[in-house]
Prior knowledge:
The structure is a homodimer.
Chain A: H1 9-15, H2 19-23, H3 31-35, E1 45-49, H4 55-62, E2 67-72, H5 75-83, E3 90-94, E4 107-113, H6 122-132, E5 133-144, H7 146-149, E6 157-158, E7 164-168, E8 175-179, E9 186-190, H8 193-202, E10 206-212, H9 217-222, E11 235-241
Parallel strand pairs in A: 1-2, 1-4, 2-3, 4-5
Antiparallel strand pairs in A: 5-11, 6-7, 8-9, 10-11
Amino acid sequence: MTQNIYDDPEFFQGYSQIARSIGGLDAAPEWPALKAMLPSMKGLKVVDLGCGYGWFCRWASDQGADSVLGLDVSEKMLEQARNTTSATNIKYARADLEQLALPAASFDLAYSSLALHYIKDLPGLFAKIHAALKPGSRFVFSIEHPIFMAPRNPGWLIDSEGNKRWPVDSYQLEGERVTNWLAEGVIKQHRTIGTLLNTLIGADFRIQHVNEWGPTNAEMAAQPALAEERERPMMMLVSVQR
Amino acid sequence: MTQNIYDDPEFFQGYSQIARSIGGLDAAPEWPALKAMLPSMKGLKVVDLGCGYGWFCRWASDQGADSVLGLDVSEKMLEQARNTTSATNIKYARADLEQLALPAASFDLAYSSLALHYIKDLPGLFAKIHAALKPGSRFVFSIEHPIFMAPRNPGWLIDSEGNKRWPVDSYQLEGERVTNWLAEGVIKQHRTIGTLLNTLIGADFRIQHVNEWGPTNAEMAAQPALAEERERPMMMLVSVQR
């Protein structure tokens, strides 16, 4: 089973305080770019893999999705997700994404936000997502960027002129990366971009769009702290077709 | 027109001394990985975009290609390429890849090694390559990796424990990168991986394989200097289908 770090009290407490936990989709700087990669929700059967507090599920329902299934490994997050909606077309269920079981050819869209870098068996998960999607439908996700995740000791260096630089090492060494983000010992799985894309292709998905998210000029003007996101990519947003 | 740095006497002199100029394909550490992405050459009509000394053209001819067209902007390199083959099915021609003109649906394989990062109008070039290929055929290329190319001052940092780290900055700032490799003022075009892949997809290619080249254990044992290529990706090898 995947490490269930979200039910760790220290992690959960920390996570509940970050901007996107409080402000939802609009507090996530990559959301406009990710939204632009999504089809219209009208009439779609949607599954959200790693739904957390359910922000996306509620948005999809509001946008006219036929039904939304939100899956998460964290009981605490699912509890909060259930407590913040009265929409009858949203269903939440506990699921370990390493052991996903979904009905075949049942969904028009699979969505996942910043969850897949916790998964060990990505080929297995992609095969199950492929099987759960109807032919022609989409899988859209965000994932931590391998350049962000690769280093032994991730962090900025400031050069003599005050510029931020992101030192990369160990890029080709795939496998566990243990960080202390919100709690100690958070385990992520580093893979190269090549491996990520080839795993999707190997699961018979067709790559449609790849966005290594960075802020627009307008976003930087509104939120100057985003400037560092221009220096190195932190997230990848990917859209594929079944 | 693209900067024709290869006909700069200083650059040409320097380039003629590097391992892959002297030793050809077998002196290029990425060649085994790139070769593994190629179809059998038997009976294929092949075009090599940026053929240099013609090492790949001769290999393709030796492997049974029906015909090979080697294109390069450098007269000096074409002269040497012509002088080192007597194969009648190889033809060399001068071409600026920014102004490519090829007959429609005429080739079974387009190949390009470490040339595309010099190209400004990549959407235009990809559209022309697409038009020149027969339906179902392949375009396989290598290109400098955006992580290698992005920084203002590319180079290794050595940390206090002697580990090599590759500081990344300016990743989202696409455009010219001027380096002093073999000669001063060599101009390359930085693009994100997302832009590269989306430009291929926009030209109606289907992504088949992405390899961010790094050495195998056997390659590192045979050539210990390759160890640093594990720390950050230097090249991308890409295979797409028309």
